[in-house]
Amino acid sequence: MNEDYEKLRSRIAERMWEVFPPMEEEIEHTDVIPKDVMVPALQEVGALGLLVPKEYGGAGLTVTQYLPILADLSRIHGGLRGFVHAHNSSTHVFSMLASEEQKARLLPLAARGEVSFGMGITEPDHGTGADIGTTATRDGEHYVLTGQKWLTTNSDWVRYFIVFCKTDPAAGAAGVSAILMERDAEGLRIDPLPPTLGTRGLQHGHVQMERVRVPIGNRLGREGEGLGLIEEGMELSRVFVAASSLGTAEEALQMSLARARSRETFGQPIGTRQAVQRYLAEMATDVLALRSMLENTAARIDAGHRVPAEASACKLFGLEAVCRVTDRALLVFGGIGFTRKFPIERMLRDARANVVEEGPPAIQHLVIARTMLMGYYFEGSIFDTPYTRAVTATV
Ligand SMILES: Cc1cc2nc3c(=O)[nH]c(=O)nc-3n(C[C@H](O)[C@H](O)[C@H](O)COP(=O)(O)OP(=O)(O)OC[C@H]3O[C@@H](n4cnc5c(N)ncnc54)[C@H](O)[C@@H]3O)c2cc1C
Fold it and tell me: Using CA atoms, how far apart are residues 132 and 162, in angstroms rounded to an integer?
């Protein structure tokens, strides 16, 4: 965390606190984030190339450096957080599998926010992963894509969709590939979905492909590598969503502390009441636990480890924590918290995006349990020990 990094972090937070809150009411009413205001501001402070390596024009941040910035943005507005998260995460996924030529052509543009990618994983008629229904059939030097994706974040803005599709339907999980599809391709239709509960202003579109021809050169990685890419990319994205939960939770806690000091009943600040103190203490406990989980997991990622179980645990605990904390914030604020006088009700709605985004709780349960049952047990902690009854006795 050097001086340059601290400057970058403050530059982004200060500019976004200036730009975003005045647009909040308009975003609520129109369900559109004025991109002509937000995007230039994000470009000016370099927030759209945070994970892109320096040689491609990005900031080249480590995960440990990136998470606090994402948490800062989550304090401001869920739509802003969602926009930046989707852009930076999809750019990262692109760079995981792209060839040198693809990276040299597109990463510098992505780092400046002149090009963006949309993640085409979720489908209306199929499950994620091996169940994907979108197909890409070879026809000479092209793939022909047919199928549907939805909930694709930033669908109104991205230039390319990273479409996860079956290039070999008979091969199941090993037949999924990632293909880059331009938004103006013939046969592609993008419709907006109805408005969302929270993260207002973000668009999560319905992408429909009817025999869309895409050059073979647009494939990312080898055929059949798509599912591994989803799993590895999501591992990181789940940690990012957990950091987003942390930012919203911290903001809700700090607003609740301020309210507990200023609001008086029966001549005393409500913060003197044990009932309110308990809410604040429980909120703080969630925040502290999530901070620690994220710090540890980020350090392991930066040290080069894969962290499927830790990432899913962060995501799972984060979504529960941010929902609990924003619910408690509503209790601290009382009835006025249910109105738009304070951003508490919006934060409570924004928090709910983190529940399903990057996989619902059931998927996190599955990943954590499966990883442990396959023999992995959490490493890198002062509590690690080989002395356990489970390895010496039949249990
Ligand atoms: C704010 C937001 C942004 C998003 N952005 C993107 C994006 O950019 N790109 C993208 O592709 N997707 C995106 N999504 C979609 C998101 O990743 C999915 O909604 C999520 O992974 C759940 O998939 P699903 O909607 O298909 O739910 P379903 O699969 O229909 O799941 C519904 C319920 O059934 C359970 N379930 C389903 N299958 C199983 C199973 N096999 N075993 C056990 N339980 C099961 C689930 O746990 C869940 O509780 C976004 C979603 C949100 C809310």
Answer: 14
Q: Outline which parts of the chain fall under CATH 1.10.540.10.
A: 3-111
> pLDDT tens digits, residue range 68-77?
999 999 999 9
Q: What is the mean pLDDT of the chain?
A: 95
Over residues 217-260, the pLDDT tens digits come to 999 999 999 888 888 889 999 999 999 999 999 999 999 999 99
Range(s) of the chain covered by CATH 1.20.140.10: 227-375
Tell me yes or no: is domain 3-111 CATH 1.10.540.10.
Answer: yes
Each residue of 144-159: pLDDT tens digit?
Answer: 999 999 999 999 999 9
Task: Say how many Å lie between the CA of residue 134 and the centre of ligand 1.
Answer: 16
What residues does ligand 1 touch, defined as CB less than 6 Å away? 86, 119-122, 127-128, 151-153, 199, 204, 353, 356-360, 362-363
Q: Which of 204, 237, 316, 354 to mutate to test the pocket of ligand 1 (most atoms within 8 A of CB)?
A: 204
> Which residue's alpha carbon is nearest to atom 48 within ligand 1?
360
What pLDDT does residue 254 have? Answer: 98
Distance 37 CA to ligand 1 centre (A): 31
Strand segments, DSSP code E, in the chain are 117-120, 135-139, 142-153, 160-166, 176-182, 188-191, 204-215, 219-220, 264-265, 268-269
Whether the CB-CB separation of 192 and 207 falls below 8 Å is answered with no
Nearest-angstrom CA–CA distance, 86 and 358 = 11
Question: From CA 84, how far away is CA 74, in angstroms rounded?
Answer: 10
Nearest-CA neighbor of 206 among 263, 261, 134, 260? 134
CA of 321 to the centre of ligand 1 (A): 20
From the CA of 128, give the closest atom in ligand 1. Answer: 26
CA 319 to ligand 1 center in whole angstroms = 14
Instruction: Say which CATH topology domain 227-375 has.
Output: Butyryl-CoA Dehydrogenase, subunit A; domain 3 (1.20.140)
Chain region(s) in the chain for CATH 2.40.110.10: 117-224
Query: Residue of the nearest CA to atom 41 in ligand 1?
Result: 127
Q: What's the CATH code, domain 117-224?
A: 2.40.110.10
